[in-house]
Amino acid sequence: MPAAAPDTRPLHAVLGSGPAGTALARELARRGHPVRLVDRKGDGPAPDGVRRRAADVGTAEGARAATAGAAVVYHCVNVGYHLQVEVMPRIQEAVLGAVEASGARLVVLDTLYPYGETGGAVMTEDTPWRATGRKGRMRAVLDERYLAAHREGRARVVLGRSADFVGPGVLNSSLGAAVFPGALTGGEVLGLGDIGLPHSYTGIEDVAGGLATLGERPEGDGRVWHLPTAPAVSTRDVHALIEKRTGRPLNVVVLRELRPFGPFDEEFVAEYAEMFYQHTEPQIMDSSAFERTFGIRPAPLDRTLDATVTWYEQWLSRL
User: Fold this and answer.
1) Would you identify the CATH topology of the domain 11-163+201-230+286-292?
2) Strand partners, 310
3) Are strands 70-75 and 251-255 parallel, antiparallel or unpaired?
4) What does the buried/exposed string (b/e) look like for 126-137 if buried means 16 or more CB atoms within 10 Å of the residue's CB?
5) What segment(s) does the record annotate as region Disordered (predicted)?
């Protein structure tokens, strides 16, 4: 029997196997790309069509190993809040060095943090970067370095910004494990700040689809894009939509000031305090530029919540 022909399709390497990285790897494989999913251990389950690899991308050697042979690299690595200011710049240096050496395109999953407080103004890609907190300033510095690398011709880079995640597999989000388990079991459900304000939530499948599209469409390189995000509604309205799906009223505990709650311990709370403004002013993210340019609409919030409730029901059944 003749040997199988080698796979000559361009390899896509996803760094980070959290909810975004895992969803992205699955989406890329669905689109027919060979996919490598990288984290420090490399031993978890892999979606169909995805190969896992262990590497520490915070080191130059690990980043080179993780990205070897890849045509497109997706940086979806994140670390604990208390480590971000120290560790994220180190990861950037290693990953940028690797793609500069190899010529791979780099797609970076980004946050809204560089904008800082906006007074409730709608955030577009033209919103000024005015962060004052440590993490927001750090993210702004990293983003400028990414864009400078592209401008200077050292690497081909594009950034995709997301609002707060929601969706299957999303645990450590303000609309994650502090909300859905309590909603399904009659326990306490977290609400942060003023839950009557409009707040954008980006579905994890839209994060994956948006990043995959940026990976396939190099004409988007060299700038920041807001990933497809459903129109903002209030968190109170989100809670009402969840109630319809669970068939029970939610026992919402609203924290006007931060304190440990559910999966968010004292260490996390201390580090997140500087970001609490996101829950005391409207957080409205406009993704219309991405939608117009690439012809992709976000999933309706109803559909995202349907999938999220189903996932959490299955997750709770396995505990």
Assistant:
1) Rossmann fold (3.40.50)
2) none
3) unpaired
4) ebebebebebbb
5) 35-55
